[in-house]
Amino acid sequence: VRAHLGAALGASYLLLGCASAAFAHAQLTTTVQFDREVVHILDNHCVMCHADGGLAFPLLTYEQTYAARWQIRQDALNRHMAPWAAVPGYGELANDNGLTQREIDFLSSWAESYGPRNNGQVYTRIALGSAAPPVVQAHFDFSRWVLGTPDLRLPVADRAVVSGAATAVQRVSVDPKLSSDRWLRGLEYHPGDRRGVHAVSFFVQETGQWLGSWTPWHPYMSLPEGVAYRLAAGSHISAEIDSGGASGPVGERGSLGLYFASPQTTPRSVSDIMLHVNVAAGGAGGSRKLVAATTLEQDTNILALQPQILPGVQSIEVAARRPDGTAQILLFAKDIPLAWPTPYLFARPVALAKGVRLSVIEHYGGDAAVPAAGIPMTVSTCAGPALATQQAHASTVTAAAQRFKLTGTIKSVDTQSGRVLVQHGDIPGFMGAMTMFYGVDKPEELQKVTAGDRIQSDVVTGAAGPYLENIQVIGKAR
Ligand code: HEC
After folding, report:
1. What's the 128 CA to ligand 1 centre distance in angstroms?
2. Which of 96, 367, 384, 412 is the most buried (most CB within 10 A)?
3. CB of 220 within 8 A of CB of 188?
4. Residue 134: its pLDDT value, please?
5. Among positive and negative, which fits the CA dihedral 121, 124, 130, 132?
6. How far is residue 185's CA from residue 207's CA, in Å, rounded to a whole number?
7. Is 346 in the pocket of ligand 1 (CB under 6 A)?
8. Are 290 and 363 in contact (CB under 8 A)?
9. What is the rounded CA–CA span in Å between residue 180 and residue 235?
10. For a substitution probing ligand 1, which of 34, 41, 49 has the most ligand atoms within 8 Å of its CB?
11. Which of 250, 253, 245, 191 is nearest to 217 (CA)?
12. What is the pLDDT of residue 124?
């Protein structure tokens, strides 16, 4: 996705450059507007924390964002905000909340160009004699269940604190009162008070199996079609509420939604591989290298990774090495913020064959206290033949796909990669006029268009970047 957008931006720079080399720079630094690009970035990456009653000061209105623009620029450039440690370019993750290079460019050039609000269209588009123009601002719907209405909703309250050591984690037991075995295909959490909760992880209390985690930017876990966790009758769910370094219970009272597969189906079950990284010999320059590895005894689909992180954590690398020596990096995360524990959910299951060696390498600061038993990482898997690689359900329902209207001219069609380069006008609420590549929902649609065609189309925002749907040719190329 990132490479995709990077290439797209490169292309638009290039085209503008051709049009007028002298004009290009000034134009680019002033086309980004709050009402379009900035609001879009805030909606997708920031307002789940930066809201009234949220974890941090609100970044909703133009005024709030304008006032913070230099810090926003700085935090975006050094990737301090939004908090996300996985380096792009390895496994594609469904819960990725990192800014793309293009978004970082937008935020920094917006700040450097004195943070324009809009082109004045708010004032020119007033319907005759109507009241005040609509004010554009970011928003987030905290009440919406992304996965739909849960089959079972359970209260989670942290008064039954079984607090462990001097951590900020409270463990709470929840009883779903299951009288028979059930298949759990997903879960979603709604915190009661968003101001103090950084992460909540859910486990089967009796077996310790990890069931998924809530983070402010990804409130659910949803398994691929045909896969589920087995919850035995009488099982309890244990919730670990992490207040990100704040001490003592936060008085959390949230709501856990469970989604069951139909009892008529027999899904494939999820099982965990537990790896404990421990100190390896050597480890140069004040940094300690911790390793763990296992050889897969059967074909295995990797669904998610849930590393525990301790103070001093620097990086995590997970790799799969095939018997022929070739390797695939599944995850590389660095500068990991301790305050934001997160699992890494693969957008599609990663199918690995029997005999593959799965390894974890973590780096910790030289003075980090590593427990004798090592530091655990849960690898959530589904054993057996490769699962269909269709988009995991999770990534198709991510953060409310939005739809916009585009009118433009096709510059080129790449049927090989299923992409089309479009020069388009302003897309209100989404982005300014520019030339960039888009994917399409149905590659066959590309058969009916050629370079030079004028088109109208929907632009749909998705986890894998914006793509076109319902392309209509409104003027054939001559
Ligand atoms: C997961 C929650 C979360 C998300 C998502 C998030 N922030 Fe923050 N942000 C915080 C918290 C908490 C603080 C205050 C403490 C800190 O600095 O870590 C903060 C602080 C800031 C600050 C203050 C300066 C600073 O560095 O301390 C800025 C500016 C900021 N965030 C911008 C953003 C922007 C822009 C986005 C989206 C691109 C974003 N944040 C996404 C939680 C979040």
Report:
1. 41
2. 96
3. yes
4. 73
5. positive
6. 18
7. no
8. yes
9. 10
10. 49
11. 191
12. 42
Distance 57 CA to ligand 1 centre (A): 8
Which tokens hold the place of 397?
A: 């329902």
Residue 306 CA to residue 291 CA, distance in Å, equals 16
Q: Could you tell me the two tokens for 463?
A: 């986890």
Question: What parts of the chain have a pLDDT lower than 70?
Answer: 1-30, 120-133, 158-168, 245-250, 281-285, 389-401, 429, 462-465
How far is residue 133 from each of residues 65, 115, 372, 431, 458, measured CA to CA in Å? Answer: 20, 20, 63, 20, 25
What pLDDT does 202 receive?
Answer: 97
- Tell me the two tokens of residue 408: 């433009």
Determine if ligand 1 sits within 6 Å of the CB of residue 447.
Answer: no
Instruction: Please give the distance of CA 157 from its chain centroid, rounded to a whole number.
Output: 27
CA-103 nearest atom, ligand 1 = 38
User: What tokens were used for 312?
Assistant: 């001093």
Q: Whose CA is nearest to atom 23 of ligand 1?
A: 71
How many Å apart are CA 29 and CA 304, to the nearest integer?
39
d(CA 50, ligand 1 centre) in Å:
7
Which of 60, 81, 102, 200 has most ligand 1 atoms within 8 Å of CB, for mutation?
Answer: 81
Is the CB of residue 39 below 6 angstroms from any atom belonging to ligand 1?
no
Taking the CA of residue 97 as reference, the ligand 1 atom at the shortest distance is: 5
Is any ligand 1 atom within 6 A of the Cβ of residue 60?
no
Q: What integer pLDDT is reported at residue 248 of this predicted model? A: 53
**With a 6 A CB cut-off, is 48 part of the ligand 1 pocket?**
yes
Residue 185: predicted pLDDT: 96
If we measure between CA atoms, which residue out of 107, 102, 132 comes closest to residue 42?
Answer: 107
